[in-house]
Amino acid sequence: MLDEPLPEMDYEARKKALLKHRIGLWDVLHQCERAGALDSNIRNAVNFPEALLPRVPGKTRLAIANNNVPNMVGQISTCLASANINIADLLNKSRGELAYTLIDTDGGVDETLVGKLRRIDGVLSARIVHEQA
Description:
Blueprint: H1 11-20, E1 33-34, E2 42-43, E3 60-67, H2 72-82, E4 86-95, E5 98-106, H3 111-118, E6 123-129
């Protein structure tokens, strides 16, 4: 499917190959709890830290998975600032080598800007989390 020899790869190589194709997997699905179908309802995940930031109506939420390295939050906020986007609230939680960053912004964020965030070295994924209706 991916033209990658996944079965022959060691665990770290498989993770890198999946990330390269922007495919995310839960290592131990049965250990996490998920009420409903929304990713934002996942609790007790084994590979990402618990990251809960109360929603404020009218704000745009970004969810960013990234390597836990110095200046990652700085690079992300600089990218937003260069697009004249103000950060209304931010939460960054780490576990080992991984971190998860939730950002609420004043004003909208478009897919072009999300693409710029994804191109930051160390960002594993970035997406807009839409409010529930």
